[in-house]
Amino acid sequence: MSNLRATIVGCGLIGSLHAQILHERSGVELVAIADQDEQTAQSLGQKLGVPSYTDFASLLANHQVDLVVVATPEQHRLEPTRLAMEHGAALLLEKPLGTDLAAADEVISLLNGYEHPVGVNFILHADGRYATMRDQVRAGAVGQVASTFARRRGTKLGIEKYAPWTDLLLSTAIHDLEMMLAINPSPLVRVYAEGVQRLCAPYGNEDAVVATLKFADGAIASLDTSWTLPGTQPEPLDPAFHVVGDQGGIFIDGSSHGMRVISEDAYRHPDMTHWPMLPYGMGGALTNAVRLFVEAVQNGSAATPLTTLAQARRAHMVVDALKESLAQERPVTVEDTGPTQAGAGA
Q1: Long-range contact list for 237-240, CB < 8 A, 24+ apart?
Q2: Would you call the peptide bond into 96 cis, given omega within 30 degrees of 0 as the criterion?
Q3: In whole angstroms, what is the distance from residue 122 CA to residue 274 CA?
Q4: What is the rounded CA–CA span in Å between residue 60 and residue 80?
Q5: Is the Cβ–Cβ distance between 187 and 304 less than 8 Å?
Q6: Would you say 296 and 289 are in contact if contact means Cβ atoms under 8 Å apart?
Q7: DSSP state, 2?
Q8: Where are the beta strands (DSSP E) in the chain?
Q9: In a structure prediction context, what are the per-residue pLDDT tens digits for the chain, which is 346 residues long?
Q10: Phi, psi at residue 209, to the nearest 5°?
């Protein structure tokens, strides 16, 4: 079997990680990369030994591709998706799909009826802890779900890097919101959010948000998310996810997998979960997500083991509803059609 020819459009933090994973993967040829910033594109291209472009259309005109990873900022998802579709490539889209539900719907509408594999990378479905929790909850291990709690606290680095062009709910909390939808078996009916604007006030967004969700079967969920911790926080991210049912519970805490590093000048919990740089290459949930999608494409599977467009849309719906709640300072009713199964292969 010939190598799967892959490319990346958007070479920021996540895109560059995708590129490295594909470059390291057996059976895949990373043929080129593209980013509108010339220095970013050239730097990554030189590092990986592949051609770089500032214009994605030019890349596609010069290279045959089987798989495209779209890792541009969410403001620029639509056009590279359209170009990749014109070349019949499988599409792995980074979340979120757009700046709001309406923008996400443009992408989804564009892809309606597309015959090649499409997946959306909600990385928690490729994290072994979350995937195991998801499947056990669906199998009834905790009985009927009563309550879910998620925490995702980052440092001020999130504000520095992301607040000028995105926001806390859309870029960060959407992971946990999507997982809440994935494990609760009934439709969402209502959300309510409170937030605080201080450092993010110039951007019109929140530093921190606390939110509640109510499901049709009576289950409740709560979310605590922020970008306010100082850079001295030992763990780069402080997450948790707890599920309590009438027959048990499952509890996930932390992202470091218990590793501590102490030196003369620092105390750290290196992230061994998301994309750790290991002695034999990159590991973690992002590598798992890319591997699962690549294998689906190589095996000719019509279904993706990652989050589908419909599941991604529900997460966008919740983010929009929470933002409406923040703006109106009241609970907001949600029109939800209910869950669909996600991440069967994660």
Answers
A1: 237/152, 237/153, 237/154, 237/271, 237/274, 238/151, 238/152, 238/153, 238/154, 239/150, 239/151, 239/152, 239/153, 239/176, 240/149, 240/150, 240/151
A2: yes
A3: 12
A4: 10
A5: no
A6: no
A7: P
A8: 4-9, 28-34, 52-53, 67-70, 90-94, 118-121, 145-155, 188-196, 208-215, 220-229, 238-245, 248-253, 261-262, 267-268, 277-278, 281-282, 332-333
A9: 589 999 999 999 999 999 999 999 999 999 999 999 999 999 999 999 999 999 999 999 999 999 999 999 999 999 999 999 999 999 999 999 999 999 999 999 999 999 999 999 999 999 999 999 999 999 999 999 999 999 999 999 999 999 999 999 999 999 999 999 999 999 999 999 999 999 999 999 999 999 999 999 999 999 999 999 998 888 888 999 999 999 999 999 998 888 899 999 889 999 899 999 999 999 999 999 999 999 999 998 866 778 999 999 999 999 999 999 999 999 999 999 887 654 443 3
A10: -140, 135
Report whether 178 contacts 204 (CB < 8 A): no
Taking phi over 0 as left and psi of -120 to 50 as alpha, with beta for the rest, 338 belongs to: left
Residues belonging to the chain: 346
Count Cα neighbours of 232 within 13 Å in the Cβ-side half-sphere. 1
Question: 10 Å Cβ neighbour count for 197?
Answer: 14
Q: Which domains are present in the chain?
A: 4-94 (3.40.50.720), 125-274+305-333 (3.30.360.10)
- Name the residue with tokens 């292969």: 345
Give, rounded to a whole angstrom, the gap between the first and last alpha carbons of the chain.
24
Let me know: does 269 contact 253? Beta carbons within 8 Å: no
Q: Name the residue among 305, 312, 311 with its Cα closest to residue 340.
A: 311
Tell me the C-alpha distance between 118 and 105, whole Å. 15
| 77 close to 97: Cβ distance less than 8 angstroms | yes
pTM (two decimals): 0.95
Reduced to 3 states, what is the DSSP secondary structure of residue 142?
coil
Residue environment code for 302-312, b if the CB has 16+ CB neighbours within 10 A, otherwise e: eebbbbbbebb
